[in-house]
Design brief:
The complex is a heterodimer of chains A (400) and B (330).
Chain A (H helix, E strand, L loop, with lengths): L3 E2 L10 H7 L15 H21 L7 E4 L2 H15 L5 E5 L4 H12 L4 E5 L9 H7 L4 E5 L13 H10 L3 E5 L18 E5 L10 E5 L25 H39 L3 E4 L9 E6 L4 H10 L2 E2 L1 E2 L2 H4 L6 H5 L4 H4 L2 E5 L6 H21 L19
Parallel strand pairs in A: 1-11, 3-4, 3-5, 5-6, 6-7
Antiparallel strand pairs in A: 2-8, 7-8, 9-10, 10-13, 12-13
Chain B lengths: L5 H8 L12 E7 L4 E9 L6 E9 L2 H14 L4 H4 L4 H7 L8 H18 L13 E3 L4 E2 H11 L4 H8 L9 H17 L16 H13 L2 H12 L17 H21 L2 E9 L2 E8 L7 H16 L4 E4 L5
Parallel strand pairs in B: 7-8
Antiparallel strand pairs in B: 1-2, 2-3, 4-5, 6-7
Helix pairs in contact in B: 1-2, 2-5, 4-5, 5-7, 6-8, 11-12
Classes of the chains: A alpha/beta (400), B alpha+beta (330).
Chain lengths: 400, 330
């Protein structure tokens, strides 16, 4: 059985070209890029080249607007904490209810410790930001707006460029967690009102352990990590040179593959989605059908639980993921499904298929072949299921 | 993904007794779709002998929920209602070779469905056992009766364990105060009955709700590998089932060994009664190596025996002790 990997929003395979680019920096080019001798200087040159490759992918005006970090989470945390510190007199943050925990957990912590008042803007049933509520939350007390570019679970895109313009009207800084968007949708930061942007290497075929924060030139900034003078004093710590070079190469490849991502990968995703909706009753797509990442399809299967579906898929060599309770270790459906008010009948059975340029039509065929039988089998086991459109209220448990 | 035993996987992928039992004369329905778990247990009971002739189930839930339901039907077919009524959630978990701690609520759901079905056969209302309006966890619809039973049957001593076994407290945690109260109350009863060491019992103020929430969140976000590691540790028979008390200072090794021998001697009649035995092999610091003999060897309940011995030793010595089952070396 051929393994099928459709969990690329969790992580991607490191591109072999990226691996090749990195390898010399573990061996012969081992110098510290901050050293001035020849061992370090040549690595420093490669680090600079990687910065320019990333600058290209982001459409940034200057390469020095890129600060390397160890992860997307570090980039998010740096942006938020920096903004609070750099904007005296302002102690409010505006974010959304569907952000990644890298943003949400920190915001909740800041709120709990009394360091900031946080506005969590809700979304509609398609995962689209409530723009009216967003406008109402903006004021001259807001230090930072932090909104994701693309949702990791549903792929729904927020119109961040426009949202950033609105934030600017109130003098707030604007940060976007673009971890899922970078490499999948075109991004041009030059000329935009976006002040900061986070990304993570392993979501775009670079290795894990390398991320970056874009900080527009002129933006007030306070470092999270202090120590050495690396990254122009904005992020101390010896540079992860192999990771940085890998990320640079991955950025170069992402530019090359952008069209493929927007066309072939999207077509594969759409074919998968269409076939599932046609062949399996009582399921629907979570997220915005139009403004969505080209690689992501989150489908809610009513009356079955996500982990049970995943276990069957795994046995058939297919890797996907679920935002459902049991898989993640939590007991509740994902905060994204809850924010979208996805009914419980479906929220527990939501499966995310996320593709990449590595996927081929046979992968989709394999899922289309396997999934209807899995759903049929699990629904036969479900007390809520008695054929399509059964009213689950027929089931009357003792303590519901 | 969770680290399930082969038996859990087998009972999930090839569930026995799944489906609708047309001739059912006893039905137990528990759980709710909002909680992500629901089970309908159907029994065919011989009215004369009260023997369960057949059992089938329908389950909405994860791998361990389906496996637990299937295991339950295997456990009860052929038993009389009197025999079946004493089956515990731990029996279901043991039958499956253990469940990850966070999944123990699946076995509790099986237990609840069985009790509900038996009550249904007898024309009783299962929820009559519960106090009116005693819904504790609104997120998951768990009432006082379920929580108290789970604490008692499994000798739970922490809020986190209560959540693992019942789901209560797994959501907004506004029920924290009530959970604490129930845990302290039932633990107090268990201490009074000699079933739980006093120092192991939960006391009000023993946990902080904010810390629990933070821990739950961290756990949720943890990568899969560490989750597996935690699960493996927690299901290991040598893992302590409850937080260990602070070590007692000043006990000599000789005194420690004597007390351990005394404790084992006190337990021996009970073990022998079940055709087994336990022999002290070695003591290394707080690790006590024992050799389980006779029927205790390879018994599905061995881990329960081990934790029972461990609990007894902790109570006797007043210090943390870890029981490690080893093979006989002489």
């Amino acid at each position: 059985m051929r393994p099928v990997y459709l969990d690329n929003n969790a992580t991607t395979r490191v591109d072999p070209v990226v691996v090749d680019a990195m390898l010399p920096f573990f061996t012969e080019q081992f110098g510290n890029p901050s050293s001035i001798h020849s061992f370090g200087a040549s690595v420093g040159v490669s680090v600079k080249k990687a910065r320019q490759q990333l600058q290209q992918l982001l459409g940034a005006e200057h390469d020095h607007e890129i600060i390397y970090t160890a992860s997307g989470t570090e980039a998010d945390n740096t942006a938020i904490l920096s903004a609070l510190e750099a904007m005296p007199g302002r102690d409010e943050i505006v974010t959304s209810a569907v952000e990644h925990p890298a943003v949400l957990a920190l915001c909740q912590h800041l709120e709990k410790t009394g360091r900031a008042k946080v506005h969590y803007i809700g979304v509609d049933s398609l995962g689209r930001l409530d723009i009216e509520a967003y406008r109402n939350a903006l004021s001259d007390k807001v230090a930072l707006v932090t909104l994701m570019w693309a949702n990791n679970e549903t792929g729904t895109l927020f119109p961040v460029e426009g949202l950033a313009e609105l934030a600017k009207e109130h003098g707030a800084l604007f940060h976007t967690d673009a971890v899922q968007a970078v490499g999948k949708v075109p991004i041009v930061l030059k000329g935009s009102a976006i002040d900061m942007l986070s990304l993570s290497g392993h979501k775009l075929h670079a290795p894990k352990g390398i991320g970056a924060l874009y900080v527009k030139r002129g933006t007030r900034f306070k470092p999270l990590l202090r120590g050495g003078h690396q990254e122009r004093g904005r992020r101390a710590g010896t540079e992860n040179a192999p990771g940085i070079i890998g990320l640079g190469k991955a950025a170069e490849l992402a530019i090359e593959h952008m069209v493929d991502e927007q066309t072939r990968v999207k077509e594969l995703r759409d074919r998968l989605e269409k076939a599932i909706l046609q062949r399996i009753p009582n399921c629907f797509v979570n997220g915005d059908p139009r403004e969505r990442l080209p690689n992501t399809s989150n489908i809610a299967f009513e009356y079955v639980e996500g982990e049970a579906i995943l276990l069957h898929l795994t046995r058939q060599g297919i890797a996907a993921s679920s935002g459902s309770a049991c898989t993640s270790g939590s007991l509740e459906p994902s905060h994204v499904m809850k924010a979208m008010n996805v009914p419980f009948t479906a929220a527990h059975g939501s499966i995310r298929f996320s593709l990449s340029r590595d996927n081929v039509p046979e992968d989709v065929d394999q899922v289309i072949e396997a999934l209807p039988k899995i759903l049929e089998k699990l629904r036969e086991l479900s007390p809520f299921w008695d054929g399509a459109n059964k009213d689950p209220k027929d089931f009357k448990p003792v303590y519901a | 993904m969770w680290d399930y035993s082969d038996k859990v996987k087998d009972y999930f992928f090839n569930p026995k007794n799944a489906g609708v039992l047309g001739e059912a004369n006893a039905v137990g329905e528990v759980g709710a779709i909002s909680c992500g778990d629901a089970l309908k247990l159907m029994l065919k009971v011989d009215p004369e002998t009260e023997t369960i002739q057949d059992a089938k189930f329908q389950t909405f839930g994860c791998g361990s929920a389906i496996a637990s339901s299937s295991a339950l039907t295997e456990l009860i077919i052929g038993k009389t209602l009197e025999e079946a009524v004493s089956i515990t959630n731990q029996d279901i978990a043991d039958f499956l070779g253990g469940l990850p701690p966070e999944k123990m609520h699946c076995s509790v759901m099986g237990y609840e469905a069985l009790q509900a079905a038996i009550a249904n056969f007898r024309g009783e209302e299962w929820h009559d056992d519960h106090e009116e309006g005693a819904l504790v966890c609104k997120c998951f619809g768990v009432d006082e009766g379920v929580i108290e039973r789970a604490i008692r049957m499994n000798k739970l001593t922490s809020i986190e364990q209560v959540t693992d076994y019942t789901k209560a407290g797994g959501g907004c945690l506004t029920c924290f105060d009530k959970l604490e109260e129930l845990l302290a109350k039932v633990n107090g009863e268990l201490v009074a009955e000699g079933l739980l060491a006093e120092h192991a019992a939960y006391r009000i103020g023993g946990s902080d709700a904010a810390e629990l929430k933070a821990k739950a969140k961290a756990k949720k976000e943890a990568e899969k590998a560490p989750v597996r590691e935690v699960a493996a540790q927690a299901t290991s028979p040598i893992a302590p089932s409850s937080p260990l008390p602070p070590p007692s200072a000043g006990m000599t090794n000789l005194k420690k060994i004597r007390l351990i021998e005394e404790a084992i001697e006190e337990l021996r009649p009970y073990l022998k009664k079940d055709g087994g035995d336990c022999e002290l092999v070695d003591v290394d610091g707080n690790n006590v190596m024992v050799n389980l003999k006779g029927a205790c060897m390879g018994c599905q309940m061995a881990s329960v025996t081990i934790s029972g011995i461990q609990e007894r030793l902790i109570a006797k010595l007043g210090m943390p002790i870890r029981i490690i089952p080893v093979k006989n070396t002489h």
